[in-house]
Amino acid sequence: MPPRKLMLHLKCCGIDKPPSAYSKLHPACCGYTNRIECKVENAYEQNCTSAIFNLINNTILGLDIVFPLLALIIYFAKDMASDLNAEIRKENAYTPNRLSMLK
């Protein structure tokens, strides 16, 4: 279930934000709210447990993409920084020491 549909499902139950993985949902989330059926399309397609599982699963899937991408960016940034540092050291090797010029 996409996150938007899951949020519609939870808003149907009177929950404004995604609950934590360990919080218990109100029994109304599994069917009716105050004996009035929620009219959101496919809102009660899944029960509470699977809705929370999907919410956690979608979050983890997002992290599975973000962290490796962030690791690649950090790796290439460190690689570029070490190359730049090597170039600076090479330039400094050819420049005479300024203190020796003052003597």
TrEMBL record:
InterPro entries named in the record: Tetraspanin_EC2_sf
Residue intervals passing through the bilayer: 59-77
Record carries keyword Membrane: yes
Record's keyword terms, sorted: Membrane, Transmembrane, Transmembrane helix
Protein name: Uncharacterized protein
Organism in which the protein naturally occurs: Cichlidogyrus casuarinus
